[in-house]
Amino acid sequence: MEETSSSCESPLLDKILNVTEDGSTDLKGKPVSRLLTGGWTASLFIIIVEIAERMAFYGISSNLVTYLTNVMQQSTVTAAKNVNLWLGVASMLPLLGAFVADSFLGRYRTIVFSSVVYVMGLFCLTLSASVKFLRPPPCNETFCPGPSAFQVEFFFISLYMVVLGEGGHKPCLQAFGADQFDDGDPTERKYKSSFFNWWYFGICSGLVLAVSVLVYIQENVGWGLGFGIPTMVMAIAFSLFLCGTSMYRHRLPTTSPVTRIVQVFVAAIRKWNVSMTTPPVEQNLYASHELLKGEMRKLMHTNQFRFLDKATVAIDSDAEHKTEIDWRLCTVTQ
């Protein structure tokens, strides 16, 4: 009787407290109020970080060949090769960042840790272009002394710290910004669509500032200032992001989407010889709402990819392998 009363009071209490309907929580995993968290106020901090990050990244990448040839005294071929390698690593690292965020740290913590690495990389890059013993001596009319091994190593370590930080930012920032709007609320759902428009505006703003203002400063004022400005802007944006911590809505890390897809195929292959009704009776498929492991929306069964339906059929041997149940039994939503 007490359980029934508690279950009836919970939705009423959530309504009184105006708790979000999409399962958002605070950092400790507790439900959050729609009135006190998320929305445009929280997303504004995230957009500011994106503007700063894009300005910093494009401020470096758009003029990197020039820096490598004029300052690091590399040939055009070597400089182009190093830039392409750096950009290739930058395009691959977001896969690692997404996996870490989805499976272990969550989006907020991944953003924080990657921001620290990002700012440190920018700071070291600024030192590399400003401090005399870290910067290669300029060429004179007859001789180019070239950079020392330490100067080259320090520069490239700094450069790859930047892409390591960018690898954590890229898959998390936009998704974390979207998390600040409750899909269960019609008004916030509408705001969420507008958020993506402002997000794209932020990306373009950072890009324009980078290829115009920063590139001009780098070539006409100095590389130290040209790298120092995005360092300061990124540090300020990160500080503002931390100031909004109490207002953010979070999604608890679960499992990497790639892992969940593989689990479905493994479970279906293990049960290749299990007989099923044709068409399968939906009640026989594993789709209990309380066993969806944090999934907020239950997807209905369809007739597509029916060969994977066997992954959702519970058999007696599943109970004997509880430690590896995720690789033996999957939900319809999964």
Automatic annotation (TrEMBL):
Any GO CC annotation of this UniProt entry: membrane
Topology of the protein relative to the lipid bilayer: Multi-pass membrane protein
GO molecular function, one term: transmembrane transporter activity
InterPro entries: MFS_trans_sf, POT_fam, PTR2_symporter_CS
Subcellular location: Membrane
Highest taxon of the lineage: Eukaryota
Transmembrane spans: 32-52, 83-105, 111-131, 198-217, 223-243
Main location: membrane
Pfam families linked: PTR2
Keywords carried by this UniProt record: Membrane, Transmembrane, Transmembrane helix
GO biological process: oligopeptide transport
Family named by the database record: Belongs to the major facilitator superfamily. Proton-dependent oligopeptide transporter (POT/PTR) (TC 2.A.17) family.
Name of protein: Protein NRT1/ PTR FAMILY 5.10-like
